[in-house]
Write the structure tokens for this entry.
Amino acid sequence: MNASFDLKQRVALVTGANTGLGQAIAVAFAQAGADIVAVGRTRPDETAAQVRAAGRKLHAIDCDLGAKPDVRAIVAEAVAKLGHLDILVNNAGIIRRNEALDFTEADWDAVMDLNLKTVFFLSQAAARAMLDGPGRGKIINIASMLSFQGGIRVASYTASKSGIAGLTRLLANEWAARGINVNAIAPGYFETNNTTALRKDVERNADILKRIPAGRWGKPQDLAGAAVFLASSASDYVHGTILPVDGGWLAR
């Protein structure tokens, strides 16, 4: 492996690492040499097995990140168990679908709390630990095509992912000179739990596939290279970017 992409002796905290995009990112980090702290509501047993098969450690923290979690305690446990924290991936997120005229306050708050509020305060806690420890770090937020577009029937999700784009730039502005890179990945249409309803809708699925130049939905592993790049020293001069991994969707 090119040394620029080597994650040996790094510790990465990945939220929502039990399935989908988070699992693919955690496993890719482990294969590049990092130890993993997996945070989520369900046990990441499958992820843990793959991380250990790569010869790395995984520590799991059971936590509902949408229920006003004690993010400082999460970061403190990660540091206590694995010694330090170098990388944070804010991957956990939810989506609620309804017409804007019928959208409920409960669905608005649930999405905004997890997708945006927790991301900010977990990033804050992680940055403090990074500055107290090695003095450097990488924070990767998971944005969306709806960080660039409006979408339909997903008011709070669009608002949260647009907020992630702005927050990524703001944190990069504040922390770049302090040795912390903050960037985001914007996945296109991927095969995950969040897109099950879309893929089952024959008409919407066909419309989406027509617009993707690559001609297929993304697979979680398609995100691995971008994530390792942004977590590694190869991206040391990359700050505040939102990297689409979308099969060409935005180019269409």
About this structure: The two ends are 34 Å apart (CA to CA). Residues 13 and 37 are 5 Å apart (CA to CA). The domain at 3-243 is CATH 3.40.50.720 (Rossmann fold).
